[in-house]
Amino acid sequence: MDKGGSRREAPSDEPGPADVLAEILAMRAPLRERLAAYVDVMVAEGSPFVAAYDRLVDHLAKAEVGAGAPAPGETMPPFVLPDQSGRLVGLEDIVGAGPAILSFNRGPWCPFCQIELATHLEALPTLASHGARLVSIMPEPRSSTAPLARALGERLVVLSDIDNGYALSIGLAMWVGDEVIALMREHGLDLGAFQGNEGWMLPLPATFVLDREARVLARWVDPDFRTRMETEAILSVLAGSER
User: Which of 38, 107, 149, 179 lies at a CB distance of 3.0 to 4.6 Å from 84, suitable for a disulfide?
Assistant: First the structure.
């Protein structure tokens, strides 16, 4: 593990103590508190990413990035993407087995994404009781997504959205900007090497709760990618859909 708790071949872009991610994952706390704890570490250490992220989030908010993504009541556009084993998986295959939680994540190197997915997986028995599956969509090939899936016990499906094609099609792709590019490179994070392109694009982290017809029951789309949809909110939506 390197700074921030990600794998050595995929350094974290938010430097911190080597054990900070493990400590946060071990917290008995809601997702928002765990994410805030990671931000607090960045602030305490004087990470240059704090101010850079604030400026990027402000830019994304003003540009209304993500505003046009599928809204509650709309149907999620279909896709066919490879999973961590290389098998092609379609949206209809996922929802055909029951409700689904689609989580768009930046990549296996992202501590915020790791915290989100691990926290949701703690509620896996309850998710399963609703027949729901957790699916993560990332813009990296299976060489990167497979180790993350294994680390999470193969308890979720991780799909590779190469070149952010699907994220672009639903208005969730964003350019990280020159300032963040420079900082990422300074901290050993080369998105081009991970993604196989030089676009320096990432999906805006977002969560969609879908029913068996791929209709959006609820969504979380926030330009501030340091926040995510609460596990309790997902469970509440699933429970409400069964009434």
Answer: 149
